Amino acid sequence: MGRPPCCDKIGVKKGPWTPEEDIILVSYIQQHGPGNWRAVPSNTGLLRCSKSCRLRWTNYLRPGIKRGNFTEHEEKMIIHLQALLGNRWAAIASYLPQRTDNDIKNYWNTHLRKKLKKLQGNDENSTQEGATSSSSQSNFSKGRWERRLQTDIHMARKALCEALSLDKSDSSANPISPILAQQPVTGSSSYASSAENISRLLQNWMKDSPKSSELSRSNSETTQSSLNNPSIGSGSGSSPSEGTMSVATPEGFDSFFSEGNAFTPEIFQVESKPNFPNVNSENGFLFQAESKPSLEESQVPLTLLEKWLFDDAINAPAQEEVFMGMGLGESADFF
DNA sequence: AAGAAGTACAACCGCCTTTTT
DNA sequence: GAAAAAGGCGGTTGTACTTCT
Fold this sequence. Notes:
Elements: H1 19-32, H2 39-44, H3 50-61, H4 72-85, H5 89-95, H6 101-126, H7 131-170, H8 178-181, H9 190-208, H10 213-228, H11 244-247, H12 253-258, H13 267-270, H14 304-314, H15 316-325, H16 328-332
This protein binds a DNA duplex through residues 1-6, 14-17, 35-38, 50-52, 54-56, 58-60, 87-90, 101-103, 105-107, 109-111.
């Protein structure tokens, strides 16, 4: 027999997520970890389907997500990877760990596709070839399975890396995800990113809320600075209801925390810890797969396979260069 | 100033694969 | 092994915001 149904569609809320829902979700995941999405709505009381929760987490709340403008480098990466892999956004996103597939997809659809169309239009005007099109067509079909295979290998390596990293974390060493390790370790922890997301969201929300509109200007700054201020909430006895969250006081929001809700917004405290060690000391939860460990912390002897994986990842910037080095003409053949 | 058109992006939908019972 | 749900992915839509006329 199969499994019990995930969520009956009756009473399931749709549309934009509210900050309250975000907090509830983040707090729950902080305590229980991502995964088992089926249990999330019932355990949190969120009137969302499990799929929606997962999507909200992976696309918006997950730590380590970089938002905002794409850099020129990222843009080029996406263009080349799209030419190489097609619309396999998850695969492309695996090369840009700080971006979600949804983000990349959106950026492609809104910016890059038009940009390339323009460029291609120019190219066609300047080079009225047509002779190469048939040959490139054959190249495309010939190389398509190879590119797919290449992506799959990359994904497999990444998955293996993460799996190995988790094993290592068990033996007290911090997990190493080579792909993530490429990323420069920023001042704020990965956890903070999540808080930043919510703080930004709160600011927008306060801006929109007519009730709190008077407070919004000063308070949004306070909220932001509080969230970024290491001196706040570092376990110095600041209760959830005072400090950062109580600044924004739309109804039901303050009460959510002050009424001793099961999911306290510890997330706003953890971020203040310097070099967040991937462990919430209060509940022991590990953000293993999504942490950004530093390379030198791995002192575990490497097996050949692991070494191969790590070497490969460390050389990844060189791979990027390979992508970047590909002439646009070559990529254009794939279109 | 007002409406139209364009843009950006969060979220949903449906399909496919994987996992669980 | 089969059935059914969970999870994952890519395509698409809805809507808020911005720019143009």
